[in-house]
């Protein structure tokens, strides 16, 4: 059974996903709010996909439609794949809310932290009463890039990606709907698990902020995970990771530590985080961002660090390391990332106990 998919976003990831889904025989509509950004794709009628993996998907992915009108993009869709920076989730939710209908599935790729909670609240606040399932992936399934206006390239497809619906009782329905296209997605327990196993929250902002001078002076001409992870920087990463795991524990969740994640994802080990990162061959050769105006800060701070820290503060966990990173980011970018970020207040969770929050993400019920 093939589904009608809509891919929201025509960046590196969105173009890759749209092309791959089309090559698998699905009807795919691609949406981007800026018509000029997808003009060449619309003119050609699809996207040329290449793969670095031997035997990987490649060829011309013919799209059913390319549009900058959100109603046209989603009105006939079964599954809506949102492949945008998580800082855009709220806007897309509000824009799409009037046109969503019963039975549709929305999946955030990825949700970062509390993405499905924010998206679901935003569509409800916008008056949407349709029975829509909102789900989130723990991480993006592709390592990919855009090679041109209508070209994309896959470097790797992850073998197992946790996914959770809100509430968890609907996760299997989502997995079944996308199983033919994406058997790699597995049950992610619930959206608190997918959100609190967000490793980007630990690695990205701190590595950029603590190397701010180096990034600005060299324009990123150094190895981000090797040169940028000195023993002192690694100690900060360990503090942030410990805080994340402790916040998860306060919510009854056993989150993976960064060391466990490195072992799981890359089969890399070490006596501490500094050693383990330097033992990961895949990190060698990856350059730093060329500027501090980068999603590692403007996306990962408000949409990853802030919600984890906010949950920690609400449920009695000290998150001074995270607070310091959020404060430094706010100063450097001259913005208030607490105000712009996902907090328990903005998500409507401030008055909920742990048991009430857990029950809501598990079965959707509110006391």
Task: Chart the SSEs and their pairings.
Elements: E1 4-8, H1 12-23, E2 27-31, H2 39-44, E3 46-51, E4 59-62, E5 65-67, H3 70-74, E6 79-82, H4 89-96, E7 105-108, H5 115-125, E8 133-137, E9 142-148, E10 151-157, E11 161-166, H6 171-178, E12 185-187, H7 191-196, H8 200-209, H9 212-218, H10 231-250, H11 258-266, H12 273-278, H13 295-298, H14 300-314, H15 320-333, H16 337-340, H17 354-363
Helix pairs in contact: 4-5, 8-10, 8-14, 10-14, 14-15
Description:
The chain has helices spanning 12-23, 39-44, 70-74, 89-96, 115-125, 171-178, 191-196, 200-209, 212-218, 231-250, 258-266, 273-278, 295-298, 300-314, 320-333, 337-340, 354-363; strands at 4-8, 27-31, 46-51, 59-62, 65-67, 79-82, 105-108, 133-137, 142-148, 151-157, 161-166, 185-187. The model has no long low-confidence stretch (mean pLDDT 95). Helix content is 42%, strand content 16%. Helix 1 (12-23) links the parallel strand 1 (4-8) and strand 2. It is globular and about 50 Å long. It folds into two domains: 4-191, 3-Layer(aba) Sandwich (Rossmann fold), CATH 3.40.50.720; 197-363, N-(1-d-carboxylethyl)-l-norvaline Dehydrogenase, domain 2 (Orthogonal Bundle), CATH 1.10.1040.10. It has 367 residues and is α/β, with parallel strands linked by helices. Helix 10 (231-250) crosses helix 14 (300-314) and helix 14 packs antiparallel against helix 15. An eight-stranded mixed beta sheet has the order 5-2-1-6-7-8-11-12, with helices on both faces. A four-stranded mixed beta sheet has the order 4-3-10-9.
